Amino acid sequence: MVYVGSRGGIEEKLMPQANISLLAIHCGKFRRYHKTKFLNLVDPTTIFKNLIDFKNFILGIFDSFKILRAEDPDLVFLKGGYVSLPFGIACRLKRVPYFLHESDVIPGLANKLLLKRAEKIFVSYPVEHYADMPKERLVYAGNPIRKDILEGDKKKAAELFDLDKNLKTILIIGGSQGAHVINELIAEKLKDYLEDFQIIHIAGDYDFDWLEFKSKKVTNRERYKLFTFLSGDLKHAYATADLVITRAGNNVLTEVAAAKKPAIIIPLESSANDHQLANAKVYSREGAAYVMIQSHLDSGKLLRQVRSLLNDTEELNFLSGKISKFYNPDSAELIAGNLIDFYKSCSKDMLREEEASEKGHSKKSRTRKNTEK
Fold this sequence. Notes:
This protein is of the alpha/beta class.
């Protein structure tokens, strides 16, 4: 098995730490910072970055060809995202069968361009949520996550984060880059939060320094646990959290669902195709999480909602039960099973073709011998 990722991406740092070898390729995003296509086409910053990334995208196709030639895979599994597109195009050109996984309710650009030739498309939500995708090839599989997320320990968390067992804990997580707006909303009312609660705040690299500086002036500073990023210890943070405040990227949402944690979801409004808002709406319709729209939100409103929830044990238990239904513990096994079945069926077809070819060759040989006699 071979893993492929982006050159210079975070996976190039993290996967070797997990003793997983990675083949890196060039790749580039198609940047859509504005809501309208016109602004995306004329904005100089967007144009410049897209030109650079288009060059990386072309290089990525050539990188992918080299990997396909060297590894000669029987099939390829593409997780979606901008890394998948150059590799998927190389698969199409070389006629290597591939499968897709779509994490969000609204497919990303890469998957939209690749789904026509995909053998199957695994999706994270029930099939009825995907209006514009080929239903006959969709497989509701859920979203695979690291199994260690389920191995968190509340006692270990208390030691690790130096927590007060008599206080409720809020976990704030905005993805690998943090979430600037959420960070600002929390910072404005940090003093008020720390009067009643303790916080584990995964702020990302960009906002860490100013949050660290601001928090030093606040009463009850020892109740505020600030981090740029958590990897191995994230499971313990989930285990001890009474409430999670997060964006609506599906990987994080699946982790929250797996940990059965009540959540306030604040979708990123500038996400491509508003996929985060679409993800959040699915959870909201099922009563599995509270969704707060960023443009309608201020720090006081968020604080009031947090207090209301953390003082309502019945509602917290209800949310915990509802959100847990969005996690499929067999997701990875289901996907792997489909890939293995496809491989086996292809192997049988190839064997039949070889047997038919051998029979045909043997028949021709006998015919030739009879003719000679």
